[in-house]
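ok here's Pyridoxine/pyridoxamine 5'-phosphate oxidase, seq below lol
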Amino acid sequence: MNEVQNQELAALRREYTRGGLRRADLTADPLDLFERWLKQACEANLSDPTAMCVATVDETGQPYQRIVLLKHFDEKGLVFYTNMGSRKAQQLGKNNKISLHFPWYPLERQVNFLGVAERLNPIEVVKYFHSRPKDSQIAAWASQQSSRISARSILEGKFLELKQKFQNGEVPLPSFWGGFRVVFNSVEFWQGGANRLHDRFIYQREEDGWKIDRLAP
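and the structure came out like this:
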């Protein structure tokens, strides 16, 4: 990229004008505000409103990020599913600290959860796995997630082979497939504001409830 292109890139900006976030807008429990914002993201017809960036670290402290879909949430935590041989699952097995980031840019909003990831019990995993479309179940068998493959055709060939195998029967749960519940202890809500005076509030779990603080943008 040349100097002119870099200057054009640096000049890209816009104002955030959709409104602010005030303390009066907050709920006592962060999950209630998250539920409200998620509902509004769905009602706004955002693409993949449940998409979240999942951040983990490896044994050297190197961070990794990827987009995963939120599949359930309640007072116990936020749930997602994955191949347990995947990079993220392997990293969480050694360091279960995790960050979840919801980038609802069209609404000028972001939410970030910090906490620890706990493996789901087999009953929860089986129930969700069999609720997925059959092709998605087969795809879980076809992909050894994060492993190196020489060509896409290998993956597609394996999928077609398994689709033929399971065409007349139920797809069993792979032994290597599971999920995590993120038990969170910190939640930050970000709402864009005019003149870059964004609104940020952080909830931090304490023994008797949630402490709420406003953060400078």
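fwiw Strands lie at 51-57, 63-69, 72-74, 77-83, 97-104, 109-119, 177-191, 199-206, 209-215. kinda neat tbh
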